[in-house]
Amino acid sequence: MLKYYSICKKSCFDEEIYLIHWRKNCIEGFFFLRLRETLDNKLSNLGKRIRYRNNKVDEKKLFVMSYDNQFTCNPRYIVEELLARKAPIKIVWVINKNKKITTPFPKQVTLVPRGTFEMFEEQGSAKVWLDNGLNCVWFDMPKKENQVYINTWHGSLGIKKLGGDDFWMSKAKRCNAVTDYLVTNSAFEEDVFKNSFWKDGKFLKYGHARNDLLLDAHKKTKLNEKTRMALGLSKDTKIALYAPTFRDNGDTSAIQLNYPSLKKSLEEKFGGNWEILIRLHFKNRSLAIFNNPYPFVHDVTMYPEMQELLSIADIGITDYSSWAYDFLLTKKPLFIIAKDIDLFDNLRGFYYHLNETPFPIAVTDFELLDNIKNFNDADYQEKSLEFLEGKGCYEDGKAAKKVADKICEIMGVE
Questions:
Q1: 136: closest CA among 193, 180, 102?
Q2: What is the layout of strands, in order, in the sheet containing 361-362?
Q3: Residue 15 banded pLDDT, cuts 50, 70, 90
Q4: Which region holds residue 102: left if phi is over 0, alpha if psi is between -120 and 50, else beta?
C-alpha cells in the first residue's frame, strides 16, 4: 500500500505511466481501494498538520522509535542511561501491538501502539525524538521548530550501501529535512551520511551506544552469564555466531552451511567443544525455513538483543552485515562467507571492497574451512587496528552517557 503512494507521486508527472498504474488497478479490481487509500493518506497528513502545528511541546518528554518496535539497539542503551541517572523525563516508546514484546520494557517507560492516535499525540508533544531508522518520519508527522530529532541509525562501519525502494527513499529524503543531529562512530560513517541522505545533518561524534557493552569488560562478564543461561549454554562451551544479512531479492539460501564440517574445523583449530548460533536478519525471519537436524546448532533469530550475542560469541561468521564491524571492537576473529558477492554487489552495492577489511574471505564452504585452519591471530589484530584507524573510528565505550547528556542539555535537565 505504502509503496503504491510513492509510485503514484513519482509518476504523476508522467501521464503515460500514471495511467498504466490506474489501468492496472482497474483490471485487478483494486481501483476504488487504491483511490480510498490515497485519499485517506492525504487526509491523514492534512489532519496531522492542523492538529500538531501549534500544540504545546512538553520540554521534558522523550519520544522513542526503533525499527523493530522492541527495546533494542542504540535507543535502548540511551534510555537505560537516562533511567539510571533518574532524569526527570517522561519516556515514551512505540511498540507494535500485534507483535510479542521480546525484551521487557522498564516500568518507567510509557508504551504506545505504532500508527495510532495515541502515538501521534505523544510524538506531536515531545521535545526530543530519538530514532534508529526512518521511523519518526514514516507517518509524515510534522515536526515543529522547537522539537529536536536525534537519529542514531543502526549501522556502523558497514560495507553495504544504504538504500531501498522509492517509498523508502522518499522517507530518507524527508528524514534529512527534519533531522537535527546524527550520532556517528567514525569519519567513514560521517561521509556515508553526507553522501547519501543526511547532507545537512549535524554530527554528534559520540560512537554508538549499543557498542558500549562490547568495550566494558565488567558489563560483558556479568551479561555473558545471563545470556548463556538464557540460551542453555555452559560457560565452557565455545560459541560461533553465524548471522548473514538480508537480500533485496528475498533469497534466504545464505543460511545453508556445512555445519558438521564447520564444527570440526573450529575444534581442530581452536580446541574445546563448539556450538553454533544462527541468527537471521529481521527482514528475512518470516521468509526463511531453517530445518536444523544438528543438536549443536541453535536458532537464535528471535533472541532480542544482537549485542548480547556478539558479547558471548568466540568467533563470528557473516557475509555483508554491518554487525561484523561492531564485532571488530571485541578483537575476536570474524570470517566472511560471501557466496553471492557479485550478485549482491549488483543489487545493493558496496562502499568499499571486502578485500579492504581485516576479515578472511571465502566464497565457498571449503574456503571458509581453509581460512579457519590457516587463521593467524597476530596478523588479524594488526589488520584490524589498521582498518579502524583508517576509517577514523572513535568508539570509546561512553556513547550512551554522551547522548543522554545531550538530551538532558536540550531539555534543560541537570
A1: 180
A2: 297-299, 274-278, 238-242, 315-318, 334-337, 361-362
A3: very low
A4: alpha
**Which residue from 106, 183, 178, 102 is spatially nearest to 138, judged by alpha carbons?**
178
The number of C-alpha atoms within 13 Å of 99 and in the hemisphere containing its C-beta is 16
pLDDT value of position 337: 92
Contacts of 53 (CB under 8 A, 6+ apart): 142, 144
Name the phi and psi angles at 361, rounded to 5. Answer: -115, 135
Q: Which triple of cell numbers denotes residue 261?
A: 564440517
Cell numbers that stand for 251 in this block: 533469497
pLDDT tens digits, one per residue of 327-359 = 999 999 999 998 877 666 656 677 878 889 999
Contact 336, 354 (CB under 8 A): yes
Q: Give, in order, the Cα–Cα distances in Å from 24 to each of 6, 12, 84, 185, 267.
A: 16, 15, 55, 46, 58
Of the candidates 130, 57, 59, the one whose C-alpha atom is nearest the C-alpha of residue 93 is 130
Per residue in 130-184, pLDDT (tens digit) is 999 999 999 888 899 999 999 999 877 777 777 777 788 888 888 888 999 999 9
pTM of the predicted protein model: 0.83
